Amino acid sequence: MTVRDYYEVLGVARDAGDSDLKSAYRKLALQFHPDRNPGDHSAEERFKEAAQAYGVLSDPDKRARYDRFGHAGVAGASQSAGFEAADFSDILGDFFGFGGGRRSSGGPARGVDLRFDLEIEFEASYAGAETTIQIPREENCDSCKGTGAASGSGSETCPQCAGRGQLRYQQGFLVVARTCGQCGGTGHVVRNPCAACRGTGRTTRDRRVTVRIPAGIADGQRLRMHGEGEHGAAGGPAGDLYVVIHVKPHPIFHREDDDLYVEVPVPFPTMALGGSFKIDSPAGHLDVHVSAGSSNGTLVEFRSKGMPSVTGRGRGSIYVRLIVDVPKKLSKEQKKSIADLGQTMPTGTIEGRPVNAEEKPFFEKVKDLFG
In angstroms, rounded to a whole number, what is the distance separating the alpha carbons of residues 142 and 180? Predict the structure, then answer.
């Protein structure tokens, strides 16, 4: 049978570095592994071929001989049964059980991290708050202290895997490790299980957790609560709880970074002549002063009245955007007053009639008209 060039098998150049070789082999191994292609003889052969190629090219000495003499230079080496799972664990990690032999069976394992989605009012994100949530989580059984064995008894070494937690199978020239089905990978079996947890060593409880929400937190940000996740196995540390914050939108204000914006309709006379009004905001009552001659879209800034920085350093601003409030319905008298005002404006037309500019300043004329 013709043996393909190893560089061609992996799809890399002849000067490929170690990282390129690893990446190419990992991609092929995951694609053609027998566990992903049960009963596919062609995929199994491709998997073996990729492993042989990587086994030679990843070894500097073998690669040098291969580059000089071809397959004859590594005859026997690439066909040996020496390519065990441990040789590929740094590439395939925990996929398909590779590298499992390097892990201690039944040893301490960190608990699972948990997520909780918490919806809060806009005001809580502005000022900060404290609330209590209730989460279900797996904890160690109090009766057996997480061992799974009844009081006064213990566990025994698993007879099927001899305490390794894994069973190793020869697959071609590879040795593949799989989790032991009898002990579930712990390496131990319980003959007299705990009645409270039925030998699992675990129980599910609802736990109440106090969450402190910092002022300035934004929608989508999360809080990490160390050690509030599920309990670890065999004495391992607990996981963490991640609280994801969802802020209800404010009915009037909208947030951009740490600044707050609001649009306020202002009557035309106030925009033209100046004036003031009050608005309610998350920071309390604000006195908005409108300068005479303000144009549509003018922003009035209130420094340090916006959202506090979640880091605790500084605050944003509140911006009030002035929008000219144009009335949709006018009485005849109002229409006439506006038309008369138009006569004093720069040259243009109002209702199809030409108007002429005069020398008197516009805003003085407005004051005359509105008293």
Answer: 27
Q: How far apart are CA 111 and CA 109, in angstroms?
A: 6
> pLDDT, tens digit, for every residue of 276-293?
999 999 999 999 999 999
CATH number of the domain encompassing residue 227:
2.60.260.20
Asked if 185 contacts 109 with a C-beta cutoff of 8 angstroms, the reply is no
d(C-alpha 11, C-alpha 22), whole Å:
12
| pLDDT tens-digit series, residues 184-206 | 777 778 888 888 888 778 888 89
Q: Looking at the domain assignment, is residue 34 inside a domain?
A: yes
Q: Could you list the residue range(s) of the whole structural domain that residue 11 is in?
A: 6-80
Q: CA-to-CA distance for 166 and 19, rounded, in angstroms? A: 30
Which tokens go with 122? 């806009």
Cβ atoms of 8 and 57 closer than 8 Å: no
Q: Tens digits of per-residue pLDDT, 301-346?
A: 999 999 999 988 899 999 999 999 988 888 888 888 888 877 877 6
pLDDT level of residue 79 (50, 70, 90 thresholds): very low
Residue count of the chain, please give it.
371
What's the rounded Cα separation, in Å, for the pair 63 and 319? 68
Q: What phi, psi does 250 have (nearest 5°)?
A: -75, 145
Q: Over 50: is that where the pLDDT of 366 sits?
A: no
Tokens found for residue 216: 């300035």
Q: Assign 358 a pLDDT band (cuts: 50, 70, 90).
A: very low
Our measurement of the distance from residue 27's CA atom to the centroid of its chain's CA atoms, rounded to an integer in Å, reads: 26
Same domain, 219 and 279: no
In angstroms, the CA 305 to CA 285 distance is: 11
Number of domain units in the chain: 4
Nearest one of 356, 321, 341 to 269, comparing CA atoms: 341
The answer to whether residues 27 and 131 belong to one domain is no
Planar angle of CA 26, 24, 35, nearest 5 degrees: 35
User: How is 290-355 classified by DSSP, letter by letter?
Assistant: E-TTPPTT-EEEETT-SPBPTTSS-B--EEEEEEEE--S---HHHHHHHHHHHHTSSSEEETTEEE
Within-domain flag for 274: yes
Q: Note the pTM of the prediction, 2 decimals.
A: 0.57
